[in-house]
Amino acid sequence: MIQMITTRILNAPQFHPIPPIVRHSLHSVQNCSAHSNSPFLPKAPSILATNILKSYFETGLTKEARTLFDEMPDKDVVSWTAMITGYVSCNHHNHAWRIFYEMTREGMPPNAFTLSSALKACKGMKSLLRGALVHGLTLKNGISGCIYVDNALMDMYATCCITMENACMVFQHIHLKNAVTWTTLISGHTHRGHGYAALRLFRLMMSEAELDPFTISIVIRACASIGSHIYGMQLHAAVIKHSFESNLPVMNSMLDMYFKCSTLSEANQYFHEMTEKDLITWNTAIAGHERSDSSGSLELFSQMQSQGFCPNCFTFTSITAACGNLAILNRGKEVHGGIVRRSLDWNLALNNALIDMYAKCGKIDDSSKIFRNMTHRDLFSWTSMMIGYGSHGYGKEAVQLFDDMVKVGVIPDRIVFVAVISACSHAGLLDEGLRYFKSMLDDYKVTPNQEIYGCVVDLLGRAGRVEEAYKLIETMPFKADESVWGALLGACKAHGLPKLGTLAALKVMDLSPNVTGTYVMVSNIYAADGKWSESAKMRKLLRGIGRKKEAGRSWVEVKNRVYSFIVGDKMGSHIVLVYGILDMLIWDMKVGFVPALDSLTHDLEDLKKQ
What we know:
It is globular and about 95 Å long. With about 600 residues, the chain is mainly alpha-helical. Helices cover about 70% and strands about 0% of the residues. About 40% of the residues are buried.
């Protein structure tokens, strides 16, 4: 019987080449089956077949593994578990669950490893119901209390539940916690954005379990999520104390933390001091610069390629965003060409970034073309296109896009409503904007935040319904912030309503605004109403707190190079050409030009300085 099974496995034509070690063992079974008295018998065919299953899964040959499994006459719990674990390792979670279901239906009792693998499949499917069924089986089979199962249960609940309550409950019932136990719960809190909770758990863990590089990487990520530079420095000290400074994944996490929690110069210093760098290191640095210094991202991108690193989807996503931030169309097109040449134009995140980039560069038609050609779209795709239409004044197109999105079954979130209401505001579509605001409350049960209310106030203000905007602010369930009152203040200035504008100005000043432009706008409101002493007081207050209105910066792309300048700029090799063009424009101005005196900022002191 044994000889017949091994012969069939060895000679089966549909299998891919069997690994040499397993094939040698099968030949040994074939040759030694007649000598049962030998003291060194080879492994049984079922064990060898299970080893072949594992080998197939390791190389991604899932169909061949299933065929071999179906032909096995004797399947034990190890064989079933190997199939479930193999499918999970290949991210075929539905197939893993089907095997687990067949196993229980045939009456094969699972062991701890089977149940932990089944729980991983439930996590992969994000199926809380199935995970709860497996939890019930652990209790029924008396396997609760096994650390492998409990850790997998925690991980499943942390992923599938709305809150971390169930995962924390499992954690509390584990008597002997290991490093995986702590790391699983810390990771769950981190992925949900509960950075402070993750750090509190980490402090407890340090006194009860041994720290490993994976745990410290997760904790550093939690620190980055809350933007705490102090905690980041303490974690850096812990990395050095535990001799993890040579671990590249840990160092990459530290680099990301510095970009999110510290100054750009400090992050750059850390980057240049790293003795070893991989693609993740470069991607982290490029993404870190994209948020605050987009031109630095482009420089790092060139350095990365010069050192032989090949960019991937994450690299191109950050570089595309940087081109959009700088509005450098030609460079953006070059990046797009690199994406196409590497056959990465199928990537969803990249297409979303390209939509945003072309919209910011003024090429809304190219954004629309990419959007239409996408075979798959997520919520971010629809939102990016909607924001693009809105920023270009195409309110009707944004409205149509919202309706199309709903028709295909995509549920809008708060950011989508900000995009569509803002688009309606810029295009003067008052009724449509108010309809979406009502739909958000009644149909989708989305609770409006400060940003939403600010958009609606701006919508009403632009349409001249300033009193109605003020009443909306009064009915808000929470205290309006600077952005909401600022929107009303802008509407009062635009429609010449000094009394209501003065009221809005007082509300803004009570909030101690952080934006210098708000002080300037309040000063202008007072000046327009003839209250020159109050206007001067605002300017004096602005100077007294040591703040200056941020200078407007313009930039232009010429021959793949970006030139930037501000008012009164005298530095730079390009300034001579700029002033030459400016003199030509001044000369070309018509004599009959009449300025809008009511929109002047009344800032004579600033004009004198310039």
